[in-house]
Amino acid sequence: MRRRTVTAGNLEEILQATAPAADAGETNRPPPGAAPAARQDHGLRTEFEFELPRGYVDEAGTVHRHGAMRLATARDELRPQIDLRVKENPAYLSVVLLSQVITRIGTVTDVHVGVVERMYATDVAFLQDFYRRVNSEGHTRAAVTCPHCEGGFEVDLSGGRLGES
Fold this sequence. Notes:
By secondary structure, this protein is an alpha+beta fold. It is built from 6 helices and 5 strands, in the order H-E-E-H-H-H-E-H-H-E-E.
């Protein structure tokens, strides 16, 4: 078996070439030109809102704190592995990964590596923990204990003000 070297430029080509072919006897395919079928809601939450501790400051000086992150796919986790920046510095993996799954920050919808690079370290750390919770545990809640009364309760890490529900 011959090994192939994969670069970021030909990843899409390789993924398409190795994708499983559709069954020839597939009968559920709509006829050409037909309207797409409405998607059914299966109760799976795929996008999660968050509020950054400090906020992203864009070139105009506007602070953006509210955003959204989608669930990661296997492709999202594989793609950074071939990025040369990640190969040179493995710590850069989280920057590339976050740039792929953050769908918006405030009014910024084109979230790319440069945006994540310009974020404050506290916001990047928050987003790394948020990513882990959303993709590993499927929710944004955390169990905490009050330091004064030692009572246990849950908080939602996605943001919001204290006392809001």
